[in-house]
Amino acid sequence: MRLFLSYAHDDYDPMVRRLKADLEGLGHEVWIDRERISDWQDPTHDSDWRSSVTRGVLGSGLVLSFASARALRDNGVCLDELQISACVKGALVQSVLLEPGASALVPPAASFRQFVDMGDWREKLTRGDDEFEAWYADRLAELTTRLDGEELQRYAAELEEVERLLDPGLSTAKQDALQAAGFVGRGWLAKEVDAWLDDGDASQVMLVTGTPGCGKSAFAAHELMYDCRVGAAVFCQYDNAAFNDIDGVARAAAFQLAARFPDYRTTLLETLRREEGLRARRDEPRDGGPFERYVEAISRNLIRGGRGNVVIVIDGLDEVAMEGSGPRAVNPLAEELGGLIREGGVPRFVRFLVTSRADAAVVDSLTMARRLDVDAHPEEGEADVRAYVEARVGREGPLCEEIAAGAETNFQYARVACDLAGHGAFEAAAVPRSLGGLYRLYLDRAFGEAGAQPDASAPSEKAPEVAGDASQEEANHKNARHDKGMRKNRKALCLIASMGEPVPRETLRRAMKWSEHDEKEFREALWTCLSETPDGRVSLFQRSLSDWLRSDEAREYRCERGEGRELALEACIASFHNGVGGMNSFEATNLLPLLQENEESHLGVLLEVLGSAEFAERLLTLARDGR
Fold first, then answer.
1. Which of 38, 335, 407, 545 is surrounded by the fewest CB atoms within 10 Å?
2. Is the pLDDT assigned to residue 115 strictly greater than 80?
3. How far is CA 97 from CA 16, 27, 120, 137, in A?
4. Residue 139: predicted pLDDT
């Protein structure tokens, strides 16, 4: 079996390394992430690392989590790895305790299996080699029995089949970014959720609303990791097709429920196999959409027994693509969920914890929900934000006071401000008082630093060193760096902001005529506001940044939708002319819509594409693959 080992490089390293060698000797293939990041404020804790870890988890049959206080500390790398594991591998996590009491540290998302307890290994060492070796042999045998057992093998095979037939979205980019940003406070909100779950007569839906940046999504990510009642958690993303429609949300939720509950998995597999048979006969299921078939119908058949409440978290419901336009526009997932609850479609012990902006399309569809408006609790919100700022920049000094005062109840403001402060972007007296002001300062610095990189194509010139003109000369150099960064990066930012879905890195390079080094430099400069999927597609982490970039307040950074989509079109055309076989799915599926938007200026290319049998076959292949 291919194993992914998650552990902290600390005093327990020799024990983990020995287990790794012995497991490999028994025929297992072991993958360890050697690029450990200990400081959650470090910009190198970026999407390259996360993509590498996610690929390792996805390619493994099981995740071995070695539990110690350092490994499972708040905001630590191992917690990130466990979150990725919980989302993309379900319950395929086996925890090994490396110190006494470590079982209490393992988050519920990774504690479905009985632990292998090696917490007394140091004490055994003091008793001599013979006793230690006998003890170690017993623990290794226990671990290998678990790995080679029929139950685990059957579970892995069934989950693999569910993934193949269901084709769920497995990206954890949003959750990873939220986990990396850290979580502080919100104890009062957790108490409200607990009270709702303990109330047997309460609505099956709790709707948590609030303005952008108030911490709704961070709370949802924390619930996924630390509340054992959470059976599934889906993070809607306005710019990711796998998570912005009812189909994608249903598939992602169903996969996670199948990973947690054997009776659900059994019924889901029967449904999926029947549907596969129908498709083989060129027929389609006629018993409702994916949400009805995979969530509603199957959950009705769950046997409660001794099972407590099962919570399905839907974060960012307002980011689901709307149907219709104007006053008649509806949020299809909110409508479906509201109808499901009103009709009694799922058992009472299945609950839905939903977060959203206070959009009318969501609120009006969920009138039966118990609603909690985060914005109606300013004192608690300000206390939570202050605790977060103190954890980031320290309690002492005016900087903490200024950031906390500017943030009020907005975690996004606090996060960006603390990131900038950590890089020396401003003194306490110069902290911008708005989130837009922080975004501007962030991009000023990011583009200036990117512009400061040497340009291999330009001759090197040394400016004259005239003492009286030193300050002006420094200002000139700073402006020149910023202008170069603007030319280099603003258009790429426009492209990402305008597409409404994550953009492949190779497409970004093609559009900008960049080398891999150029593209990596861009991502490093903007590391805190970009997220990346496991297959190398980038998007803006915060919807509020995307909104700001399209507003007049952004001024010189303003991203016009047409400008970004024209760049995407140029990349798609170049890819088409380089050979249809080399086009990625983003380029193939976006080429025709983008050409139709720009029909007058690209009529010849449009006719060429429409006449290409190879391109038509490529689209058919992508459609069959569900892409």
1. 38
2. no
3. 11, 23, 9, 16
4. 85
Lowest mean pLDDT among 189-193, 348-352, 530-534, 614-618: 530-534
Query: Which secondary-structure segment (H or E) carries 581?
Result: none
**Cα angle, residue 395 at apex, residues 393 and 399 outer, rounded to 5°:** 55
Provide the pLDDT for residue 422: 76
Rg, Å, the chain Cα set: 26
- Spatial distance between the Cα atoms of 168 and 394, rounded to a whole number of angstroms: 42
C-alpha 299: how far from its chain's center? Answer: 26
With a CB cutoff of 8 Å and minimum separation 6, the contacts of 231 are 256, 257, 260, 261, 310, 311, 312
pLDDT of 46: 44
Please give the Cα distance from 564 to 499 (Å, whole number): 7
- Measured in residues, the chain has a length of 627
Question: Bigger pLDDT: 610 or 430?
Answer: 610
Q: How far is CA 322 from the centre of its chain?
A: 22
CA gap 585, 176 in Å, rounded: 24
pLDDT in tens, 184-234: 788 898 899 999 998 988 999 999 999 888 888 888 887 776 677 788 888
User: Which pair of tokens denotes residue 287?
Assistant: 């018993």
80-90 burial code (b ≥16 CB/10 A, e <16): bbbbbbbbbbb
E strands present in 369-463? 370-373
φ, ψ of residue 458 to 5 degrees: the values are: -110, 145
- How buried is residue 619: exposed, middle or buried, by Cβ count under 10 Å (0-12/13-18/19+)? middle
